[in-house]
Amino acid sequence: MTDPVPVRRALLSVSDKTGLVEFARFLAGQGAEILSTGGTAKALREAGIAVKDVSEHTGFPEILDGRVKTLVPQVHGGLLGRRDLADHRAQMAAHGIAPIDLVAVNLYPFEATVAKGAGFDDCIENIDIGGPAMIRSAAKNHAHVVVLTEPGQFATVQAEIAATGGTRLATRKALAAAAYARTAAYDAAISGWFAGQLGEEFPPRLAFAGILRQTLRYGENPHQQAGFYLDGTARAGIATATQVQGKELSYNNLNDTDAAYECVAEFDRPAIVIVKHANPCGVAVDDSLAAAWDRALLCDPVSAFGGIVAANRTLDAAAAEKIAAIFTEVVVAPDADEGAKAVFARKKNLRLLLTGGLPDPAAPGLTFRSVAGGFLAQSRDAGRITAEGLKVVTQRAPSAQELEDLIFAFRVCKHVKSNAIIYAKGLATVGIGAGQMNRVESSRIAAWKSEAAAKAAGLAEPLARGSVVASDAFFPFADGLETAAAAGVTAVIQPGGSIRDAEVIAAADAAGLAMVFTGMRHFRH
User: Fold this and answer.
1) 242-245 and 468-471 beta bridge pairing
2) For the stretch 357-391, what's the b/e string if a residue is b when 16 or more beta carbons lie within 10 angstroms of its beta carbon?
3) Is 1 exposed, middle or buried (0-12, 13-18, 19+ CB in 10 A)?
């Protein structure tokens, strides 16, 4: 084996022809014979590049509507034959198999075909067979063959050949690793699609892949490493976002921004969500983003400092001025007008992300969490309650305003770490208790926060007075509800289902509260 390995014969067969002509012209200029198929050969000939059809090279015609054209010994023998073994060289010579030193293949666009909603037969026809086979053969024999699977790799290989007269082993190894990752991701996409066609949400083998978008400075803590990968679903949010300005996003920025944006998408009217450490610390709905901001900030102005802000409408200058008035790490929205961009531009460290859309809270999908030796997979919490689905369990039914606030509070609850307690009034949070080991403590913390926020705003009584309360899971005892009643709530929404429901209902009746059961829990651990 020599290193670098010169490229005397190259096989080019690509669906994405970006950079193809320039790369092929370079190879031809280096004296390489160019083999190709179908549309790739046509594109090269139209560019005036000498090309030999694979069928002419192999002496075997394309058959079965092109399904079989490269699955022949003359191709795979040329890729897999070891040049350093005399026996391999002798067998190749005996069977008229010429070595192939470079393969550039990118696969039939299966993922794009699925993404555009094509029918079953169309998707099947876009499953590449010959491409992955050639890629894997070339990658296995990377000691002698270089394999390219992305147009972005052309420039690196071209520069190396120009500088050294061939490809170096280190480069071939790196490209082989990338090649196997590409075919693995391709097969994962196919297997996932097939499972969906069969209605198998959790098939016996679950495969998924990601594309590295960004290597992060560190993970949750500076001693941890981290990367941000895309899963190919293009769910609107941080994966689709364009960063207009600001410093590089960190692991925690991305995690918190995702939490904020998923929450703000729950609401149909203009809404603002402020998040700190993946928990909402202020949420409000109003007629404008600026008004929603004022009411969201009122809930917990201390925690909002250095937080993440999400909006579900195009940001305007009025909202931007208010948001920019305090230190904010990230602002995320579907879009922003020029006035808003100009306001944020004055805060050079603030990251502004524009996603182009909102995620659908009701859309299906899977979420994952690692555990020792494996991972847990579950369907996304796409549950949404409506007024029609609620069960009034107390002597008093909620008023129309209470009912609206109850539904709002329960939607916020879905995005707060358990045990979650939300006080809300006028479609704005006025106290949030999150992540405690028991529900009564969350109730107390939410009430305490409402008192602190009122004091900071110079108000005479706690914000929770006259509010409603939402609990993400049932009250196991009456004490959590009694704490909320003491804070001044008038109505309660909770899943129900405790063996002590009768005790909790009696406590609500004794306090004159209206209470509804949802029958749906929203644990978020």
Assistant:
1) unpaired
2) ebbebeeeeeeeeeeeeeeeeeeebeeebeeeebe
3) exposed
- 88 burial type by CB count under 10 A (0-12 exposed, 13-18 middle, 19+ buried): middle
Find the mean pLDDT for residues 419-432.
97
Dist. CA 352–CA 459, nearest whole Å: 33
Whole-angstrom Cα distance, residue 209 to residue 259? 22
Q: What pLDDT, on a 0 to 100 scale, did the predictor assign at position 75? A: 86
Is the Cβ–Cβ distance between 102 and 141 less than 8 Å?
no
Per residue in 302-337, pLDDT (tens digit) is 999 999 999 999 999 999 999 999 999 999 999 999
Residue 424, SS3?
strand
Distance between CA atoms of residues 206 and 188, nearest Å: 8
Q: Is the dihedral of CA 418, 281, 446, 268 positive or negative?
A: negative
Decide: helix, strand or coil at residue 324. coil
Distance from chain centroid for Cα 451 = 37
Tell me how far CA of residue 431 lies from CA of 45, 400, 405, 492, in angstroms.
69, 21, 13, 14
282, 314, 325, 359, 385 from 266: Cα distances, Å: 14, 16, 26, 9, 11
Confidence of residue 128 (pLDDT cuts 50, 70, 90): confident
Spatial contact of 391 and 496, defined as CB atoms under 8 Å apart: yes
Nearest to 422 by CA among 450, 402, 456: 450
Residue 122: count of CB within 10 angstroms of its CB? 12
pLDDT of 1 > 60? The answer is no
Selection from 71, 49, 45, 39 nearest residue 58 by Cα: 71
Catalytic (active-site) positions: 140, 277
Q: Is 522 helix (H, G, I), strand (E, B) or coil?
A: coil
- For the question of whether the overall pTM of this predicted structure is more than 0.85, the answer is yes
Of 263 and 66, which is predicted with more confidence? 263
Q: In this structure, what are the phi and psi dihedrals at residue 90, rounded to the nearest 5 degrees?
A: -65, -40
- CB-CB neighbours of 159 under 10 Å: 11
Q: Is the pLDDT of residue 259 over 70?
A: yes
Give the span between the Cα atoms of 198 and 351, in whole angstroms.
42
DSSP tag of 221: S
CB of 377 within 8 A of CB of 500? no
3-state secondary structure of 375: strand
Q: Which residues contact 116 (CB under 8 A, 6 or more apart)?
A: none
